[in-house]
C-alpha cells in the first residue's frame, strides 16, 4: 500500500498594504466635519451630521493606522521603498498630522496632544528632509 504524503502548499499573501497618502483622507473628512459643525451653529442645520462625520473620521483613521502599522511590520521592504521615494515620502508625515487633526477636531477640541503631534510631525519631516539631502549628497 502506498503512503500518501501531503505536499505543503504555499499560501498567497493577502495582506492589505496601504500607501501613506491614504491618511490625506483624514484631513478632508475633518475639514468636512468642522464645516458641518459651524454650519449647524450658523444656519441651524442638524448638528448630528457633523458629529457623525467626525465619528466616521476617527474610525477610518484607526483602521488606516492599524493597516499602516501592519505594513511596517509585515511588508517592511514596501514601506521603506515608499519612505525613500522622492515624492511618496512626503505623505509619511500625513500619518502623524492625521492623528493631530483627528484628536484636535474630532475627539477633544482643546487637547494638548495636538501640539505634541504637530511637533512630532515637524520632527519627522525635518528628519526626512535631512535624510533625503544626505542620500543625494547635498549635505
Q: Give the SSE string.
A: HHHHH
Which segments are poorly predicted (pLDDT under 50) over 5 or more consecutive residues? 6-12
Counting copies of identical and different chains, the oligomeric state is single chain
CATH architecture field: Alpha/alpha barrel
The number of helices is 5
Can you put this structure into words, describing what you see?
By secondary structure, the chain is mainly alpha-helical. The chain has one domain: Voltage-dependent anion channel (Glycosyltransferase, Alpha/alpha barrel). It is 70% helix and 0% strand. It is elongated and about 55 Å long. Residues 6-12 have low confidence and may be disordered.
Task: Give a short summary of the structure.
This protein is mainly α. The chain has helices at residues 24-43, 47-74, 76-84, 92-107, 113-136.
Q: What is the topological layout?
A:
Elements: H1 24-43, H2 47-74, H3 76-84, H4 92-107, H5 113-136
Amino acid at each position: 500500500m502506498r503512503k500518501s504524503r501531503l505536499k505543503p502548499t504555499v499560501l498567497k499573501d493577502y495582506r492589505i498594504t496601504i500607501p501613506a497618502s491614504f491618511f490625506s483622507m483624514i484631513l478632508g473628512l475633518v475639514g468636512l466635519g468642522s464645516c458641518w459643525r459651524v454650519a449647524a451653529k450658523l444656519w441651524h442645520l442638524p448638528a448630528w451630521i457633523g458629529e457623525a462625520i467626525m465619528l466616521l473620521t476617527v474610525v477610518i483613521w484607526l483602521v488606516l493606522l492599524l493597516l499602516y502599522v501592519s505594513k511596517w511590520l509585515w511588508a517592511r521592504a514596501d514601506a521603506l521603498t515608499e519612505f525613500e521615494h522622492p515624492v511618496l515620502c512626503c505623505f509619511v508625515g500625513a500619518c502623524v498630522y492625521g492623528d493631530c487633526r483627528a484628536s484636535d477636531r474630532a475627539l477633544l477640541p482643546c487637547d494638548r496632544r495636538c501640539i505634541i503631534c504637530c511637533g512630532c510631525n515637524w520632527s519627522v519631516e525635518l528628519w526626512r528632509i535631512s535624510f533625503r539631502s544626505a542620500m543625494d549628497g547635498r549635505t
